[in-house]
Amino acid sequence: MKLKTISMRLRKKFNIKQNVAFDTQVESTSWKHNQWTTKTNLKNYSSQYVIFCTGSRDRNNPHLPKFKNESSFQGKIVHTQAWGDTQYKDKNVTIIGSGCTAITMAPSIIKEAKKVTLVQRSPAWIIDIDSQERSSRTYKTFEVLKDYLTSRFFKKSLRRKMIACDPYYNETTTPSYDFWDQRPASSLDQDYFRAVELNKVSVVREGVSNWEKKGIKLKSGKVINSDVVVMATGGNAQLLGGVDVFVDDQKVNINNTSWYRGMMFSGMPNLFAHAGYINFSWTARCEIVSQRICKTINYMNKNNYISCTPRYLGEETKPAIQANYILRAMNKFPNRTYKFYQNYVLEWIIFKIAKINDKALDFK
Ligand SMILES: Cc1cc2nc3c(=O)[nH]c(=O)nc-3n(C[C@H](O)[C@H](O)[C@H](O)COP(=O)(O)OP(=O)(O)OC[C@H]3O[C@@H](n4cnc5c(N)ncnc54)[C@H](O)[C@@H]3O)c2cc1C
């Protein structure tokens, strides 16, 4: 109800109904004669700048790992990205995955399902969120930043401390990566930990071998009988919402570009795109990138520039973002990243003080 009130207020304030084209699919955008023409399924738009806020995932193609003999399984297979009308009341549900989605879903689904089994290839760090916590936003931000910075500067000692202080972590439940190298999964009011402790949710840490008529067979040979198998296996990363980009009639292959400050691409003039953090709030970065975009446009207006294009810096193999859903899609990402740090505090400062004309951009 509160969300509805807020969205109504924002709708009025920003005149959203008039200013947003709803139910519109962007198909392509082309730069020619110093302007972009953006084609949608309904009409075309011309503009000097294009800003993509298309998120990070391919909405039509979730990540669905394939196991042998899928057609033999007689139950239902569903990906969390395409839930449809899946029913799980009184059913044996198996969830495959170890990330935020699996950890959130398991204790929730067991409220109605007959049995929930969580199959994980590798464990994740899980933090508990206290729903009664009432500290101020400023204090909470300070606390999160403090923990985040500790995790960046004292990786190994924090890891040791977490394992020593929390009885949940043992040989099988401790992740191979360090705390906050990826965004940790969350449990609300201990719901996940309690469901596991009370054996309501069984956790199996093993790879899947193949599908069987009645469920899935693990590498050890054990079969988990399932009516519904939920693939909480994540998405496939995608930049620019799958929109085709043309510059002077040439289709741009994003894999042949350099990624400037995680907000522009070489060879694409006046095109901005938001990308966030994988180990911190995604939207925190959207905010500082938006501010930087405004600064860039104001700088161009002030100096009578028409276009601004990042330079191509050549190939570099080390990916800037080490998350599975990105590593799986490296061929859809720029082949080099520069001036892009997965560190909110550092970027907040850099975005405030770094010059707009920082020699990595060509202004015309
Ligand atoms: C399970 C899960 C948990 C997450 N938890 C957090 C969290 O705790 N904190 C956090 O900060 N972030 C979290 N995220 C990341 C989250 O996705 C972002 O924070 C947030 O949704 C990003 O907002 P956005 O506007 O950039 O992208 P989105 O919310 O993904 O919006 C993109 C929009 O672009 C539209 N679009 C895409 N392509 C086209 C096209 N071709 N034509 C027209 N429209 C198009 C889509 O329809 C969509 O409306 C989580 C994500 C997932 C999947």
List the helices and strands and how they pair.
Elements: H1 2-13, H2 16-19, E1 26-32, E2 35-40, E3 44-47, E4 50-52, E5 76-79, E6 92-96, H3 100-109, E7 115-120, E8 126-129, H4 137-153, H5 155-165, E9 185-188, H6 191-197, E10 201-205, E11 208-212, E12 215-218, E13 223-225, E14 228-231, E15 244-247, E16 250-251, E17 258-260, E18 264-265, E19 271-273, H7 282-302, E20 308-310, H8 324-327, E21 336-338, H9 344-353, E22 361-363
Parallel strand pairs: 1-15, 4-19, 5-14, 6-7, 6-14, 7-10, 8-9, 17-21
Antiparallel strand pairs: 1-2, 2-3, 11-12, 12-13, 15-16, 17-18, 20-22
Bound molecules: flavin-adenine dinucleotide.
DSSP strand content = 15-25%
CATH superfamily of the largest domain: FAD/NAD(P)-binding domain
Rg, Cα atoms, Å: 23 Å
Bound molecules: flavin-adenine dinucleotide
Q: What CATH architecture label of the largest domain applies? A: 3-Layer(bba) Sandwich
Shape: globular
Q: Provide the number of structural domains.
A: 2
CATH class of the largest domain: Alpha Beta
What is the residue-mean pLDDT, rounded to a whole number? Answer: 91
- Give the biggest beta sheet: 5 strands, mixed
- Which percent bin holds the helix content? 25-40%
CATH fold title of the largest domain: FAD/NAD(P)-binding domain
Lateral strand order in the biggest sheet = 3-2-1-15-16
Tell me the span between the first and last alpha carbons: 49 Å
Describe the model.
It is a single chain. By secondary structure, this protein is α/β, with parallel strands linked by helices. It has 2 domains: 24-58 and 238-363, FAD/NAD(P)-binding domain (3-Layer(bba) Sandwich); 70-231, 3-Layer(bba) Sandwich (FAD/NAD(P)-binding domain). Helices cover 26% and strands 24% of the residues. The protein is built from 9 helices and 22 strands. It has helices at 2-13, 16-19, 100-109, 137-153, 155-165, 191-197, 282-302, 324-327, 344-353, and strands at 26-32, 35-40, 44-47, 50-52, 76-79, 92-96, 115-120, 126-129, 185-188, 201-205, 208-212, 215-218, 223-225, 228-231, 244-247, 250-251, 258-260, 264-265, 271-273, 308-310, 336-338, 361-363. The strands form 7 sheets. It has a 5-stranded mixed β-sheet, with no helix packed on it. It has a 5-stranded parallel β-sheet with strand order 5-14-6-7-10. A 3-stranded antiparallel β-sheet has the order 11-12-13, with no helix packed on it. The longest helix has 21 residues, at 282-302. The termini are far apart. The model has no long low-confidence stretch (mean pLDDT 91). The protein binds flavin-adenine dinucleotide. The site of flavin-adenine dinucleotide (FAD) has 15 residues, from helix 3 and helix 7.
